[in-house]
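COMPLEX REQUEST
Ligand: iron/sulfur cluster
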Amino acid sequence: MESSFRDGRSISTRFDRYKDILMQHEGTIIRPPNEGSSILLQVAVGCSHNKCTFCGAYKGERFRIKDRETVSQDIAYAARHCRDQRRLFLCGGDALVLPQARLQEILGEIRGQLPWVTRVGAYGSAKAVGLKSDSQLMELRDAGMGIVYMGLESGDDETLARVCKHGNSEAIIHQGLRIKQAGMRLSVTVLLGLGGVERSSIHARATGQVLTRMDPQHVGALTLMLMENTPLHAQWQRGDFELPDAQGMLTELRTMLECTTLTRGLFLANHASNYLPLKVRLPSGKQAALEQIDRALAGHEPLKDERFRAL
Ligand code: SF4
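STATUS: Structure written out below.
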């Protein structure tokens, strides 16, 4: 997946082809779909939790915060070569877990050297957000952090416990609301199929209800694909986990969307893993989207071929 350049920099061809990634990226670089045009500044390698049974993204990678010199060199590189990119994403499975002083240092350097950057984003787990006080979250916002991407995955506590996600739904709701109260945008990711066939409808309904309570500006619904290097894949092979089929996933999507009420937000299910690409503006677009899902369930809308689904 990686090819080296003469100056030792590397490019992760699997994820992006933009010049912004000609940086000293190590291991796996993952960013949300809507950060595809952002400067990708890696501040940590791996994920500090790394225990979710469905996630193979950072398996085998030991979590560590990248050293100051490397991050500074990458910011200097961006200052020379990324002058037309207005957004920057701090890469790392849970970049918000970095100590407050280090995050402020990085945000200060970004503001000083990349003054054209208008928004910085990062992944932040409920655990990482919980380690910051309200005033620290506001300090991050004032320093340029504009959006936090939080993985809810499921609103069903039984499902969260089974997949070893850190924290329960109440904790995730609480920390998500703190992000918004601090003045940052909140984006929440959920995962269709995570409850298996057994908890499919419970998972879908509970997730919609939790999303309603979090009321984020942005929801990203992905569809579970089992990765071979994960414990959940092993459970599936043993027959201990049954993955819903395309119809089952669509039914979940319908229930989840029906149970989700946002004041004003986007519900996106247009990730490469989804069978039916949807981009729904809530609350106005809900009814039309539900009707589209119903047409798909009745076989009147084409679904993405299994071969073209991807993570
Ligand atoms: S899903 Fe997120 S928190 Fe869980 S192991 Fe993967 S990167 Fe870490």
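REMARKS: The chain has a mean pLDDT of 92. The longest strand covers residues 145-153.
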